[in-house]
Each structure stands twice: as structure tokens, then as C-alpha cells.
Design goal:
109 residues; alpha+beta; 42% helix
Length: 109
């Protein structure tokens, strides 16, 4: 079986994401300050959640009368770690996921 996935076309940008930030992010279960850099120079904000934190936030939202959660570019992971975020972005880029954002952006103008 040959690997017909697309070559990597996007890159995760975590900004200043040292050891302390990595520990805090893993502990909190989310990261809201990341973005994906596109080859044409575009930038797509992404929001990483782990499943436990997403469930907690959804429960809190329901109690507040807002029974849903929506974040632009939400990507849900088992655990929010640098490796998991990088792997997710790589796979999503190979699948053409981020191309959808470009198509949407073009229709807005």
C-alpha cells in the first residue's frame, strides 16, 4: 500500500512555548493561543482542547444556559501536548483540512 497523503503544507506556531508553558497547557487541558501558518503566508487561529476539559467546559456552559461550545479552529485531542498538537496539525494539513479555511475566506470577500 502506498502512502498517498499530501505533503505537509502548514506548520503549527505555538509562539513562546517553553517547558513551563507546556506543563501548564497539559494541566489546564487547553491551549487557545496557537495558530497554523499556511504556505502562502496566511495564519489560522486554532484552539486545542483535551476531552476531559471539553466535557468540563460543556457542563459549565450548560449550567449557564448555553448548552454548546464553539471555538474557531477547535481541535480536540486526548491530551494537549506539543507532540499531539504537532501531529494533529500535520495530519490535518495532509488531509487538506486547512484548505477549507482558505476557501471560506475567499467567499467572504
Amino acid at each position: 500500500m502506498t502512502d498517498e497523503r499530501r505533503p505537509l503544507v502548514a506548520r503549527l506556531d505555538l509562539g513562546d512555548f517553553g517547558e513551563l508553558e507546556q506543563l501548564e497547557t497539559h494541566s489546564k487541558g487547553y491551549l487557545s493561543t496557537a495558530s497554523v501558518l499556511l504556505p502562502g503566508g496566511g495564519r489560522i487561529p486554532v484552539f486545542f482542547y483535551d476531552t476531559a476539559r471539553l466535557a468540563q467546559d460543556l457542563e459549565s456552559a450548560k449550567e449557564a444556559g448555553r448548552p454548546f461550545i464553539a471555538e474557531p479552529g477547535m481541535i480536540v485531542l486526548d491530551e494537549v501536548t506539543r507532540t499531539n498538537m504537532e501531529n494533529a496539525v500535520e495530519h490535518l494539513a495532509e488531509e487538506g483540512f486547512f484548505d477549507r479555511f482558505l476557501l471560506s475566506e475567499q467567499t467572504w470577500t
